[in-house]
Amino acid sequence: MKYFILCAIALVSCMGSGNRKGDETSYCFIRTDGTDQQDTTTVRFTIGADKLEGEMNWIPKEKDSRKGVLVGTIAGDEITAIWRYMQEGMEDSIEVAFKFSPNQLAQKPLKVNTNTGVQETDDDADYTLIYTPVGCDD
């Protein structure tokens, strides 16, 4: 009996309480737009518990791209994240909002704040930018 209790304690202590790699799930999405669907945005992230980490890349055909990382939280089906990206050699960040399901990702559009001239998420808008799922190439 003593050995059973020791084994049980050892097993429980090895399990830990933090996020384990097996508890994380990865998702990848793509969205194209423009007159010839020439502009592409990709979103790739991993969800572990209520945290989200990944990357988001906006690659328009004839403009400077924005490529960077996403870090945020998920509550129910709503994601709130900060997108830190590089564009024209400058670092910048913006808060982005998504509605998530494994079969679709929808984003609230961005707007320009007329007071600051800076892009921001349009909190009053619906989730109208629709992304479709794609395979994640690891």
Structure report:
The protein has 138 residues and is mostly beta strands. It has one domain. Helices cover 10% and strands 55% of the residues. It is built from one helix and ten strands; from the N terminus they run αββββββββββ. The strands form two sheets. An eight-stranded antiparallel barrel has the order 1-2-3-4-5-6-7-10. It has a two-stranded antiparallel ribbon with strand order 8-9. It is globular and about 40 Å long. Mean pLDDT is 85; it is low at 1-20.
Short description:
This protein is mainly beta and 138 residues long. It contains 1 helix and 10 strands; from the N terminus they run H-E-E-E-E-E-E-E-E-E-E.
Detail the topology: elements first, then pairings.
Blueprint: H1 2-15, E1 24-33, E2 39-48, E3 51-59, E4 66-75, E5 78-87, E6 90-101, E7 104-107, E8 110-112, E9 119-121, E10 129-133
Antiparallel strand pairs: 1-2, 1-10, 2-3, 3-4, 4-5, 5-6, 6-7, 7-10, 8-9
Which features does this protein show?
55% strand; mainly beta; disordered N terminus; 138 residues; two-stranded antiparallel ribbon
Anisotropy-based shape:
globular
What structural category characterises the helix and strand content? mainly beta
Quaternary organisation of the protein chains: single chain
Percentage of helical residues? Answer: 10-25%
Secondary structure: number of strands: 10
Mean pLDDT: 85
